[in-house]
Here is the input.
Amino acid sequence: MLEKWLEYSQEVTEAKKAGKPVVALESTIISHGMPYPQNVHTAREVEQIIRENGAVPATIAILDGKIKIGLSDEELEYLGQSRDVEKASRRDLPYLLSTKKNGATTVAATMICAELAKIEVFVTGGIGGVHREAETTMDISADLQELAKTNVAVVCAGAKSILDLGLTLEYLETQGVPVIGFGTDSLPAFYTRTSPYNVNFRLDTPEAIAEMIETKWELGLVGGVVVANPIPEEDALEESFIANVIEKALDEAIEKQIGGKQVTPFLLGKVKELTDGKSLVANIALVKNNARVGAKIAASLAKQRI
Ligand code: PSU
Ligand code: MN
Here is the structure.
C-alpha cells in the first residue's frame, strides 16, 4: 500500500540494495528558499558533496502524485524554475498526492518521506521554529512537531534569527528533541556561528554524533535530533549587520500582513534583497558545509549497522 506512493531514483535504489548510506535533502529550499538559477546549481553541488563524502544523495519532492526519493536533473530544474510548485509540509502531503499536484517538501515533510524510505539522515540549511511574536500569531513551524515524532536526524546550521531562538529551544526541550552542537557550545544562528543561546550537547566528531543517534533509537525514544553545524568562519556574516537586516524584514512582513506559510519565504527573500545577495552566498556555503558533515554521520551510522 505504502510502496505505491514512493518512487526511488536508480541511484538511490542501488544504494539501498548495497546497504550504502543515503542522505535525504529537502526541496523547499530549492523552490522557495533560493532564487533561480543558484537554487538548482546549489542543489546539484550539494548532491555531489554528499557523494564525495561517502554517501548517496536523495533529494525529495512530490511530483505527479508520487513521493520522489532522488531526483533527476530535469526534475531539479523543474523545481528550481516552476512557479506552481506548492510549499509542502505535513498537512499538505495527502492533498498534493491525491490530486497529483507538485510540491517542494519542507523539513517536516522531508522527514516524513525520509522515514518512509528508511533514510535516517537529512541535510538542510536551517530548520523552521517558533517565530518572534508567536505568543500572539501562534506561528510555530510544523518542523518542530515533526522532530518530536519522526526518526530522522536533521543536520542544519541552526535556525535563523528571523525566529525566536530562545522559544525554539524551549519548544524542542518540551518535545524531547536533543540539539547537538557539532564542535560548538553555542547555538549557531545560520548566518553567524554563535547566538546568545547554548546547544544542549556538544559533540566533536561525526562518529560521536552517530553513536548518540543510534543510542536514542535503541532506547526506543522516538523523534529526531537536531545537529547544529556552524557556518564556516570565512562565510559568516557580521552579527550586527544581519540583525539589522532581519529587523527590517520582520517590520515589512508585519506591515504587509504576511501570514501562514508565506512568512518564511517572504523573510528569506527580503533578507537576500537587503543584503545585496550576501545572505544567499552565505546560505549556499553553509548548506555545502552541512552536506559534508551529514554524509559522514550517515556513513558512520551505516558502519555501526554492519
Ligand atoms: N529556513 C531557511 N531556509 C529555508 C527554510 C527555512 O533558512 O528554505 C524552509 C525549510 O523548508 C523549512 C521551512 O522547513 O522553510 C519552514 O517553513 P515554515 O516556517 O512555514 O514552517
Ligand atoms: Mn509558519
